[in-house]
Amino acid sequence: MKVYGLSVGPLQENTYLVEGKEGAVLIDPGDEAERILALLESTGLTPKAILLTHAHFDHVGAVAPLVEALSLPVFLHPLDLPLYRHAAEVARMWGLAIPDPPLPVEPLEEGQVLYGFTVWHLPGHSPGHVAFIHPGEAGEPPRVLSGDLLFQGSIGRYDLPWASREDLFRSLKRLLTLPPQTEVYPGHGPPTTLALEAKTNPFLLGLEWET
């Protein structure tokens, strides 16, 4: 599996283009659709779908122009549909502008397997937040596209509307059931590994690996 990343928009959100055996997908196209389209052109990849870890405006800002340009299906957990529908409105509250993300969307659910990923419902940052787990190919380590659940040295916010501290830490503990060598591609900031975060992330030091 090959992962291409772009940091986009004023909040420097990570948009990923992931190429695997089952084709390519875009994950969390947050802004700057023209840069994402340029990445597709430079790689020669044609994505099959847009997968969303959650529906905060900084993760969905480029969905509308990409759907218009590429006619892609969009996958989102149903519990985040209210956030999705109001994403443009919330962006305006931050002094930013994004186009309304298009409906309908295809539903994601716990345990679903698509395009080589397994969906884990990991709420806390938002009610319908998910992560996309890939087992790795040909001896590669597992990989997780973690959205805004876990970052290098930090974790997702839980002081936002619809967020839950209890759910977030429950989701973080579940994430640690993955192998320590799992590579983490977060929604903001650089990639990391679960082993590194378990040893150095101050928010995870009280959590333990499951056996």
UniProtKB/TrEMBL annotation:
Protein name: Hydrolase
InterPro entries in UniProt: MBL_Glyoxalase_II, Metallo-B-lactamas, RibonucZ/Hydroxyglut_hydro
Keywords, alphabetical: Hydrolase, Metal-binding, Zinc
Required co-factors: Zn(2+)
Species of provenance: Thermus scotoductus
Residue stretches making up the Metallo-beta-lactamase domain: 12-188
Pfam families: Lactamase_B
Keyword Chloroplast applies: no
UniProt GO MF annotations: hydrolase activity; metal ion binding
